């Protein structure tokens, strides 16, 4: 459902936000998707599926929820590249690779901060990341993870566009997703130079279409890297 | 559709592109003229676009959202015809693409041809009429503004046009996304094409850097065209915008790179129109 309003209007978003603010908390018990991070140091439940972790970050509903979803992904990407750049001293990345990664880090920080600013008091808290599976000193690990994140980001924005009510937010998402796609192509090129892999058949189908994933598909993949449980159950689904 | 709607749509993405080249915005111009008569409208649209669009489009002044969607799809199809034709010629028997880059351009050609088919099928499925390919003859010298990009020794020109087409495609799809919001499936498909165009653009830019335009990066810095011919500057005007992030706290170049900016339908047609005979 694309919110309750049709045609979309900014007023609809405001209303929706008000409604969300009013009911936040009341909906926490609703069944649905919960991305339960494997938070080993958590003293309570492990969230093996059923009840929603009361500590889970609730993305919210309507356009605010979708923006928080994007904000969560940008937090993840920004945290990753910031750590990549911080580890340049110990890494086997080439100068040319570092230069591109440096740029990408700045882009992702700009995206993250933009969403944080746009969401204001509706913004979710800072997520705790889990990068234990990444060896930041090794080119293969860094670029392999970067490829996964960028392709994931592209598919996430492609899948989330239809969830938005505001055309302004859709345009904003559009301005970002093509840059994520540029990142994806560049990283893929570093891994397999001047090959068809920049837009490989693992991401582009026979119709020449890039992947589009639903939030639940995306968050299921992202949870490997996010400790904070995320409750996406109030996001719009169409 | 209605042309009214079309023209309104032409403006939709223009609010934050600063209209660098346009002293008055189109919306303003129309309102100033104070009428929506067909003469005024016809004058506001390039002739080739009028010729391209199905006649009922021009006749019907009351737009249903579906008609607006079909018009955007026909607009996108026109760009894909241009790109597909360019890469079919570029990878053809007298191709001057060196073996190092061959796989990239073969892949791009496949995608653009697939996009043509997808758009045609989608328009038909929506009950519309797609503009036939035979309507178009492309002149990739843009009436002599560029050397023939497919002739011997003109691989650099081929690359420059390729980059210009891909970067334009990214901005053009972006500018129309809002119109497609009435149809989730079409919007999603358009976004899925949009990001593929962005992958193409990044890859072609990497090849141009490899070929000597060393400051060119996979993303667009400011409104720089690098060492591209001056005639391609319109592809980059407006990309320098930084209104997404508070100024001052961030590196200017990085912020402009972090967001690709939209082109309106009119801006896109002004660019693509150069290559239509």
List the helices and strands and how they pair.
The complex is a heterodimer of chains A (238) and B (277).
Chain A: H1 10-23, E1 34-35, E2 57-58, H2 62-86, H3 95-119, H4 139-160, H5 167-191, H6 215-222, E3 230-231
Parallel strand pairs in A: 2-3
Antiparallel strand pairs in A: 1-3
Helix pairs in contact in A: 2-3, 2-4, 3-5, 4-5, 4-6
Chain B: H1 3-12, H2 26-33, H3 38-44, H4 47-52, H5 55-59, H6 65-90, H7 99-125, H8 155-176, H9 184-210, H10 252-258, H11 265-272
Helix pairs in contact in B: 6-7, 6-8, 7-9, 8-9, 8-11
Describe, in plain words, how this protein is organized in 3D.
- The complex is a heterodimer of chains A (238) and B (277).
- Chain A is built from six helices and three strands; from the N terminus they run αββαααααβ.
- Chain A is an all-alpha fold and 238 residues long.
- In chain A, α2 packs antiparallel against α4, α3 packs antiparallel against α5 and α4 runs antiparallel to α5.
- In chain A, 51% of the residues are buried.
Gross morphology of chain A:
globular
Give the strand tally of chain B. 0
Order of helices and strands of chain A: HEEHHHHHE
How would you sum up the major sheet of chain B? none
Most residues in contact: chain pair: A-B, 51 and 59 residues
Classification by helices and strands of chain A: mainly alpha
Oligomer: heterodimer
Brief characterization of the structure:
By secondary structure, chain A is an all-alpha fold. Chain A has 6 helices and 3 strands. Residues 1-50 of chain A have low confidence and may be disordered.
Summarize this structure as a short list of keywords or feature phrases.
heterodimer, A: 238 residues, mainly alpha, three-stranded mixed β-sheet, 6 helices, globular, B: 277 residues, 11 helices, 55% helix
């Amino acid at each position: 459902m694309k919110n309750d309003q049709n045609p979309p209007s900014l007023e609809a978003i405001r209303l929706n936000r008000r409604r969300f603010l009013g009911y936040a908390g009341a909906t926490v018990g609703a069944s649905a998707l919960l991305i339960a991070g494997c938070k080993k140091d958590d003293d309570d439940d492990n969230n093996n599926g059923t009840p929603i972790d009361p500590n889970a970050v609730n993305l919210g509903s309507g356009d605010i929820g979708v923006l928080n979803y994007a904000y969560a992904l940008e937090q993840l990407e920004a945290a990753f590249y910031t750590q990549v750049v911080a580890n340049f001293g110990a890494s086997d990345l080439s100068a040319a690779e570092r230069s591109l990664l440096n740029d990408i880090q700045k882009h992702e920080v700009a995206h993250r901060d933009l969403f944080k600013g746009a969401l204001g008091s509706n913004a979710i808290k800072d997520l705790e990341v889990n990068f234990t599976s990444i060896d930041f000193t090794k080119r293969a690990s860094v670029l392999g993870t970067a490829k996964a994140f960028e392709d994931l980001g592209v598919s996430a924005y492609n899948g989330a566009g239809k969830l938005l009510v505001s055309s302004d937010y859709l345009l904003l998402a559009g301005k970002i997703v093509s840059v994520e796609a540029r990142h994806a192509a560049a990283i893929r090129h570093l891994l397999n130079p001047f090959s068809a892999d920049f837009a490989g058949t693992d991401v582009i189908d026979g119709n020449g279409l890039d992947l589009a994933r639903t939030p639940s598909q995306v968050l299921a993949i992202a949870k490997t890297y996010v400790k904070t449980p995320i409750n996406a159950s109030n996001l719009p689904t169409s | 559709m209605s042309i009214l709607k079309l023209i309104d749509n032409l403006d939709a993405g223009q609010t934050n592109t600063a209209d660098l080249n346009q002293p008055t915005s189109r919306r303003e111009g129309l309102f100033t003229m104070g009428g929506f008569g067909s003469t005024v409208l016809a004058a506001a649209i390039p002739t080739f676009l009028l010729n391209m669009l199905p006649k009922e489009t021009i006749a019907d002044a009351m737009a249903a959202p579906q008609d607006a969607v079909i018009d955007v799809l026909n607009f996108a199809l026109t760009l894909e015809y241009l790109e597909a034709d360019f890469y079919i010629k570029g990878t053809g028997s007298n191709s001057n693409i060196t073996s190092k880059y061959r796989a990239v351009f073969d892949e791009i050609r496949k995608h653009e041809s697939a996009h043509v088919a997808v758009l045609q099928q989608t328009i038909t499925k929506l009950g519309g009429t797609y503009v036939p390919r035979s309507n178009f003859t492309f002149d990739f010298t843009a009436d002599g503004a560029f050397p023939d990009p497919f002739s011997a020794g003109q691989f650099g020109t081929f690359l420059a046009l390729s980059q210009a087409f891909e970067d334009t495609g990214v901005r053009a799809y972006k500018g129309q996304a809002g119109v497609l919001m009435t149809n989730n499936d079409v919007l999603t498909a358009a976004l899925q094409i949009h990001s593929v165009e962005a992958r193409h653009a990044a890859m072609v830019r990497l090849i141009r850097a490899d070929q000597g335009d060393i400051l060119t990066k996979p993303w667009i810095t400011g409104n720089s065209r690098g060492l591209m011919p001056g005639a391609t500057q319109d592809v980059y005007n407006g990309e320098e915008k930084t209104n997404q992030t508070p100024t001052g706290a961030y590196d200017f170049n990085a912020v402009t790179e972090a967001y690709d900016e939209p082109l309106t339908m009119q801006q896109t047609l002004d660019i693509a129109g150069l290559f239509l005979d």
